[in-house]
Amino acid sequence: MKKFLFAAMLMCLILSACKTAEDSIAVIWTDRTEFISYCEAFNSAQSRYKITVSYKENPSDALMAASEEPDIVIGPWLRGDAARVKFSKLGGLLSAKKINPDIFYPLLFELGTINGTQYLLPVSFNLPTVIFSATQKNLIKTNFTLSLEEMRKLAAAYNKKNGSEYTKMGFSPRWDTDFLYVTAQGLDVSFEETKNLFSWNDQMLQELIIYTRRWSEEVNTNAVAEDEFKFKYLYDPSYTLIASGRCLFRYLPSDKLFSLNNEKLKLIDYRWMNYNGKTPIQDEIIYAGICKKAKNTAAAQAFLLWFFNEENQKSLLARSQTDNMIAPSFGLAGGFSSVKNVTENIFPLYYPLLLKHLPQTEDFSAPHILPHNWELLKKEIIFPYLKDQTRALSGDDKPLSLNKRISDWYKKSR
């Protein structure tokens, strides 16, 4: 009998130990490969918990389709209706002694709330920039931002022709559909998730299209001339085109700009894009959340507490400089840290170009809540629409309306 009781107790201890070991391991789904390095640092910093990373091209889509959820999801497009209900409340993590809400940029932090309850924590973000040659910096009279009208005026004066052909062209919004989309954000076109996919401010969208067409006609002769110039010259990287003087301005999001090496950065300067006094935060904001069905909540919470510690983020930035020799990446998780002090005081140590023009955070504007598959919707509906509406038109040529494109997309997807 004693032997039986001893065996039973031993088995209970073994099962308890196995459960404890299992509960100490948490799984992250993310599209940011930097978290492999971050989790290695976390696992080395303590012995109680372990974090493993599973790469997902679109973590939000993966979460929607999952029969078994991970412990943590980190990625963009987590604020949509279908995704955000998958996450648990984070109130227990938020206090002066744990994760202090005051460390974050307020606008980013607030975007992680649902009806006043915090479900997501902001990780990183990016901003739209316009770059130009360092030799042209005297043309730019502002220190931090540049508006569309300022760009238009300077670009028009920069244009140069040889006969009827342009040999230099200051800028065209049509050269980069990403720029047109960011401008739509900045001009309050207000793409936003609805039960019927998404909505938008059509009046502002049409104003953007008219403004772009007028730029083509009044600054660069017409859209055909812009297309010819693009075909003839715009095959080099953006920093090469402005350093050579072929163009005055080029658009680059901040993650692409600050991923350039120091030799290239010496050739250029930049300003944040400004629309009606605001710089739009690009809509691929990275958020982190703990799933409602997480099996290892304690390990998940421990990781978030560790990750949002300022000293740990400072160490991760230092660590990333070595990692960047293998795979260049900007900042933390591919962007500025959502922790205000880290971005404003630590980032300039590693990205000296920021010292000249730190983001003016009081001038940020935030994107609306967007569907979890917004990247696909942009690629297959929004971008083709913007390209088609601003291209050179002839005769009875009438581009498809946005509503028609949405209807056709629905039919195709079904």
What do you see in this structure?
The chain has 2 domains: 178 residues, 3-Layer(aba) Sandwich (D-Maltodextrin-Binding Protein, domain 2), CATH 3.40.190; 194 residues, Periplasmic binding protein-like II (D-Maltodextrin-Binding Protein, domain 2, 3-Layer(aba) Sandwich), CATH 3.40.190. Helix 2 packs across helix 14. By secondary structure, it is an alpha/beta fold. The N and C termini lie far apart (66 Å). The strands form 6 sheets. Strands 2-1-3-16-6-17 form a 6-stranded mixed sheet. Strands 8-14-7-13 form a 4-stranded mixed sheet. Strand 9 and strand 10 form a beta hairpin. It is globular and about 75 Å long.
Total count of strands: 18
Strand order of the largest sheet: 2-1-3-16-6-17
Fraction in beta strands: 15-25%
Overall pLDDT, averaged?
Answer: 90
Main sheet, how many strands, which sense, barrel? 6 strands, mixed
Radius of gyration using CA atoms only: 25 Å
Number of domains: 2
Q: What is the name of the CATH topology of the largest domain? A: D-Maltodextrin-Binding Protein, domain 2
Supply the CATH superfamily name of the largest domain: Periplasmic binding protein-like II
Helix content: 40-55%
Categorize the overall geometry: globular
CATH class of the largest domain: Alpha Beta
Low-confidence stretches: 2-21
